[in-house]
Amino acid sequence: MTQAARTVRRPSASFKVRRRSLSPKRQDELNEWMKRWGIDVDGPPLVWSELFGRDGDVVLDIGFGHGESTIEMAVNQPDIDVIAVEVHTPGIATLLAAVVHESVDCIRVVHGDLLPFLDRVPPESLAGIRVYFPDPWPKPRQAHRRLLGPDVIAALTDRLRPGGELHMATDKPDYAQTIEIACDAEPRLSGGVISRPDWRPLTRFEQRGLDENRVATDLIYTRTS
Questions:
Q1: CATH code for position 189
Q2: Is pLDDT above 70 for 19?
Q3: In total, how many domains does the chain have?
Q4: How does the average pLDDT of the chain come out, rounded?
Q5: Cα dihedral angle (85, 120, 124, 135), rounded to 10 degrees?
Q6: Directed axis angle between helix 24-37 and helix 89-102, to 10°?
Q7: Is 93 inside a domain boundary?
């Protein structure tokens, strides 16, 4: 029997608010695009077949930045439906502009905080979850604000179907260690650190890190039970 998926709320946000406005033209475009491809943060549980108009694998893409990896993977894997979540408006506009340009119809976008949106994601309904380069919160006093703690790992695992994969990447070694500890402590997950997969696209954020001699750590865990 499928168990209910847990709710997570925190006193502090796991992301920094970055305020940068769009031009009036781009804002009008974004408003129209969100009518077509947007999903509200709050509301009843979603039914993927109704949202995408087909039955298939659904992946949750968390914190996609400017969407380079999201759009490239969607173009290369058109049979996989993607729920992409981001808080920063310019990145959402950039991703949706690419959706229009590439004529991709397998992406839906959530503009807002992941944690309340998770309440709309049914338990054991996702084939995969991607969290590439979440906000590192590098100062020790900020570490509690990092997204991928035990509470969120457990909530994400609730929403993975058995056999589904949780793929994370960070170029902060101490964050990678924190993620590994949290995932290893989750009894339904099995996996660990892997070599960087060729199929994960290189984003501008990762390239900036490489230019500063920071190398990414990839971790993949599979829900086994």
A1: 3.40.50.150
A2: no
A3: 1
A4: 93
A5: 30
A6: 70
A7: yes
